[in-house]
Structure formats: structure tokens, C-alpha cells
Design a protein that fits this description.
Layout: H1 5-8, H2 12-22, H3 29-43, E1 46-47, E2 52-58, E3 64-68, E4 76-85, E5 90-98, H4 101-109, E6 127-135, E7 139-146, E8 149-156, E9 162-169, E10 187-192, E11 197-201, H5 205-209, E12 214-221, H6 229-238, H7 247-250, E13 260-265, E14 268-275, E15 278-284, E16 290-293, E17 301-310, E18 316-318, E19 322-325, E20 334-336, E21 343-347, E22 355-360, E23 365-374, E24 377-383, E25 386-393, E26 396-402, E27 408-415, E28 421-428, E29 446-447, E30 457-462, E31 468-477, H8 482-487, E32 503-509, E33 518-523, E34 531-539, E35 545-547, E36 551-554
Parallel strand pairs: 1-3, 20-22
Antiparallel strand pairs: 2-9, 3-8, 4-7, 4-9, 5-6, 5-8, 10-11, 11-16, 12-15, 12-17, 13-14, 14-15, 17-18, 17-19, 21-28, 22-27, 23-26, 23-28, 24-25, 24-27, 29-30, 30-33, 31-32, 31-34, 34-35, 34-36
Length: 559
Amino acid sequence: LKMSWFWFYQPLHLLMVACLCHSIKAPTTSSHQSFNTNLFNFYHSLILADGKETTVHLLKDIPKRYYFALEEGRALAPFTITVTPCDVPIEWSILVHKASASFLGKAERGDHGTQEVPISQKAPSMVSTIFNYRGNSVETYMGMSSHSALYMLEFLSTERDTHITVYLTTDTTSGHLYPELPMDPRIDVIGIGHTTVTLTWKHSPSVLQHRDNIQYCLLVNEKHNYKSLCAAETAIRSSGMKLPPTLAFSLSPYLLEPQQVMILSNSELSIINKASSGEVRQICMGTKNTYTVPNLSPSTQYYFDVFVVNLLTNASAAYTGTFARTLEEPEPKVRELKDGKMIQIVLDGKKQKFYSLQYQARHKKIQFTFQLCHGQVQVHIIKNGKPVASENISGLRYFSMKGKLLDTYLVQLSSTEESNSSVKVQVSTHFHKPLFPLLPESLKIKSFSKLRTCNSVTIAWLGTQEKSKYCVYKKRIEEDQVWTELQSADGCSGPESRPKSEKVLCKYFYDINLQRAVTTETIKGLDAGTLYLFDVYLFGPSGIPIRYHSKIVKTRKKC
């Protein structure tokens, strides 16, 4: 800015008129060209709006300038400028241009001779930089402005194209666009668990004054802290996610992208953005200033940022971010397996924890038996530190192992469903004394639709070459109980847990020819148009039952 100071201290709305009048004179060619060049640069720059947040887009290595001055008639007034980088660090400065005191005196007295002063007699240069900053933090400058001064803000990004927000205000009496931070804006970690971290922070004065329009929002990620909400949203978008502006904070009903998950519970909105670099979780919790972040991974470092958000203006202020590392997952307790003894294990599907069993072989050949009672269970068998078997089991499953005396076997069990699962486990060296009966090729029960009547149904099931006992049970159910009954069926429970009234019959059956090892049974005395659940239990020499898959059949309504 090398223009004559005459043009700088004039109010902006009079500047064009003054310039046109002055341009009628005929100064020397060199000064005339210099003047026109600077005048062109000034009018092709941007005026910064007062009282409004402005988004500024910066191209790499290309400075961008904004100007502002007070309205005419205001001698001195406070003003604040807040700059929020939304990505990489930037450089920005505030420069002020003032005219000399003697020159200003002529202007303020209205001396018409000032317009006759040749360009060569312009006021002494009084250009000064009053503030400069480099970084990516939110910075606010507070100063006193004079109507005799013109201010220039210059912004520069040297890393890459980016954008920032700039807020200028000369009105300090009508409240704040940005919510206020407390004197101590730190976030305190008051509790750390294996999968949780508890945070607390001091209340914003804005929350205490305007509770209905202010709320806190928390950002959780595994990479680093963010110094502004603007920077956080930019990072989420740059990772390949399409995040609607202020989605998590305005509670607006935007449609989420496929890589986003929204959870709303207990008046808290949680949005999880999934990306290859990890997940970014956003949680808004109203005006609560203590929060326990759930569902974290053990032994993982997380970064936490709290933003206080004005819901009316969508402006936000960032607390000083913090980080914490969740506790390591405790080593699961190892339970000893005893030869020939069967135990039942219940697994928590939500926590996805391994349940460990250990056995030291007393014989070269051993056999593991697993009976799935409920849910889905994955089995890993490790011998002397090396994996030897891994499988998702269903029904009844045997694993025969051959090794050396005193080999150590570690059995790890885990649920593959979110709901609880259960399984029975046995290890034995007595192959000639099986704990469970010989099983047929299938444990399905078949019903014959053409043989259904209003008061009877006919079912069939497969048998084996071994003479065994089969018991049939029935239970009357309603339409809305079908799913619940099938899901809650326990494959390990025997008929002793059922009322005697549900028992239909027991019989022995076998056939040397497996192709003929099929038996049928017609159950009579049923009600018309009614749903029944049928179960068949197979008993072996040890007396431990195996339950066939439940079958639901409906009697005919009209016959």
C-alpha cells in the first residue's frame, strides 16, 4: 500500500468520490502511474464485513488481503478479529495505515486546501504491523480502531490450498458470536477403564447465561487433537467421508453416508464416521460437563476435543484437547480341564472375550468334545503354543488329538454373536466310553403336511445303528412366540427341565441299515388351527441327552 495518505484516512463511502476529483489534476507521469496502480489494487481487494463471519479460501503461496475501517464519526472504538484455520497452519498479519498529525488536522478542520496538495507533498508514511501469527490455532486480536486509520489483513498458506474463517466486530455490547470459554479451558480425565474414559470440563459462561441455545459436543479419534470444529470437519471430509456441515452439532435430520453410523440415546447424539484411518466419533450431550465415553478399544490411545456450540449462530469455541490411553485387556483366567469331566461355559457376545481352558495330557491320544447349547461359538485349540484346530461349531463336535505325554493344550472359546452363547466342553482319554450317544446324519425333525389333521400331526426323524431311547415332547405356542421359542432353544438342556404335561411318549429304536433308520410318530389329541412346538431327545448309554432341532407345526383349522 503506497497510496497517498489522503486516500486512506477518508471514510470508505467517500473514497471513490475523492479519488475521482483528485484524478482531474494532472500530476507528473511517473507519480500518476504509481497512483493509478495502487488505486487499482485497492479497489480490487476485498472489504471485510463487520459483525459477520467470513469464509476465506486461500490458494497455496498466494496472499489474500482484506481491508476495514470505522464508519465516519467514530473517533475511537474497540474491535476484535478472530481467525480460525480449518486445516494447515497459515500466516496472517494486521497492518495499519495512518496519516501524520498535522495532515490529519487539516483534514479534520475541513481545510479545502488539502485537496490542492500535490501528490509529491503527500503525508509521511506511517505503516506499521500491529499483529502477526503463524500456526493453526484459533487466534483473536483485540484493539482500538481510529476513523483515521485503514486496516489491512493479509493471509497466506504456504503448505497447500485451504480455507479459514474470519470474524470482525466493532460492537462489543451486543454479546458474542462465539461461545465463551471458562478461565481454565482444559479437559480433565477423571477415569480410565479398559473400554471407557470419563472426562469433565468447567462450564462455559455462555452455557450458564443461554442454556437453551448452547450445548457441548465431544469429538473422539485415534490420530490427534483438533483446535477448531472447522478443522475437525475438514479432516473428516479429507479422509473420504461426506459429512454434512455441522451434522453432529445442529442435530439436523441429514441423511448419513454409508460409512456413518448415528446413535441417539438418552438425549445424546453420537455419530461414528468410519474410515480406513480409524473412526471419528462425535457426541453431543446438551449442557452436561461430565461424560463417560463408552465402547472404546482396550490399550488404545484416544484424543478428546470438546466444543461449546451456539445453536443459533452455529459458531463454536474449542476447549484445550486432551488424550488418554485405555487400560490393557486383562489376561483371561485359565480354567483347568479335568479328564472325563464336562463343564458348561457361558460367553458374553458383546465383549468378544476369549474364555480359556487348559489341559495337560496324561495320554498320547485325547479327544475334545464340544456341545453347542445356544448361539454361535468359535473354538481354537493350541498345543504347546501352536494352533492345531479352529472352527465355528454347531451341534456336537469332536476333535481327536495325538501327541506326547504332558503336552499342554489351550482351548479358547469366543461368541460370534452379540447375544450370549453357551457351550459344554469335555476332554477324555477313554474313547471306548463315549459320553454322548452315536448321532444320526441329521438332527432335523420332518413333518408331513398331507398327514396333518385338525387334531393330529405326523413327524419323523432319523435314528442310528445303536439302540437308543427317544422321547417326544410337545408345547402349545402362540403366533408371536415362534421367533422367541426358536431363539431361546437350549441344545444342552434335557427333558428334566420341562413340565410332565408336555411329554408325549418315549420309545427305543435302531436299524442296522442306516437307510431304513427312520421312525415316524403320529401325535393325536391336538386342538384345531393351533401351533405346536415338537422336540425329540436322544439318550445314549451315559444318559446325557441330545436334543433334535425343534419343529413347529400348525394343525388344520377345518377338516
